[in-house]
Design goal:
Layout (H helix, E strand, L loop, with lengths): L17 H4 L1 H4 L2 H4 L4 H10 L5 E5 L5 H8 L3 E5 L3 H9 L7 E3 L12 E6 L10 H13 L1 E12 L11 H4 L1 E5 L3 E13 L2 E10 L4 E9 L3 H10 L5 E4 L13 E6 L1
Parallel strand pairs: 1-2, 1-4, 2-3, 4-5
Antiparallel strand pairs: 5-11, 6-7, 7-8, 8-9, 10-11
Length: 257
């Protein structure tokens, strides 16, 4: 299995995952999650004409800066201090407006042509109330004809069953840190909720374990939440090639307006 985007980015609940708030741990993220087909998908959705874009849960800012380099007016928002420190220091970071906030507390007069939530960040909204607060607030921040685009893993595929130490163990080289050994391990899976641990092993012998929890929402529940938030038109895809969403598709990709 690919490790890409296994760990969700950070449009977080009130308690931010240590993997993103701690600068040393956050610095490992890009090495684990380089740009891939999902990045190409979001860049393609933005298009070539200049747009006003919000990257909600921007993490280390890789995508936000790439949007800006392509001529878009970009805001990157995230509540995780470690991630935002990396984003602001990234080459090209001065091209982006950075805001320290989560999706529910975002408050800006800017209205966006496009809002994206990448890296399966939507799965950190664990309750119906958290989903409603995030979707409703982001809907209010869309410009006329604006679109919200995000993805969540298809629960029918049961991807978490592959999140074991044997299947996910890897070593990455991190600038300024050195080699880091990482693996994931699921600790419980009950209904739509999966708890897992990320294990970090540093060259100096330091070991850190961070707990996380994700929700694997069903498509029909998501459709209802989008409708309640005021999204009248929704396109559904099942993978980054824009193939239709099928029962066995790995992703549930949403383009909503």
């Amino acid at each position: 299995m690919s490790l890409t985007s296994l760990v969700p980015l950070a449009t977080h609940r009130a308690m931010t995952d240590q993997s993103y708030s701690d600068l040393r741990l956050a610095s490992v993220y890009d090495a684990l999650n380089p740009a891939g087909k999902d990045t190409d998908f979001y860049l393609d959705v933005a298009g070539d004409s200049p747009r006003t874009i919000l990257d909600m849960g921007c993490g280390t800012g890789l995508l936000a800066v790439e949007f800006a380099r392509r001529g878009h007016r970009v805001t990157g928002a995230d509540p995780a201090a470690g991630m935002m420190s990396i984003a602001r220091a990234r080459t090209g970071g001065s091209l982006v407006t950075w805001i320290d906030c989560d999706a529910a507390s975002l408050a800006t007069e800017t209205r966006f042509d496009l809002i994206v939530m990448t890296g399966h960040v939507f799965q950190v909204f664990l309750t119906d109330e958290a989903i409603a607060a995030a979707l409703g607030n982001l809907r209010r921040h869309l410009a006329p004809n604006g679109r919200l685009v995000f993805e969540t893993r298809n629960p029918a595929v049961r991807e978490w069953e592959e999140w074991t130490a044997a299947d996910t163990s890897t070593r990455v080289e991190v600038d300024g840190v050195g080699p880091v050994d990482v693996h994931y391990d699921v600790t419980s899976a009950e209904g739509q909720f999966v708890r897992f641990e990320t294990h970090f092993g540093f060259a100096d012998g330091d070991k850190v374990v961070t707990p996380s929890e994700l929700r694997f929402i069903e498509r029909d529940q998501l459709a209802e939440a989008l409708a309640r938030a005021g999204f009248a038109e929704v396109e559904w895809y099942g993978d980054w090639d824009r193939s239709p969403a099928r029962p066995d598709s790995p992703e549930i990709i949403v383009i909503a307006g």
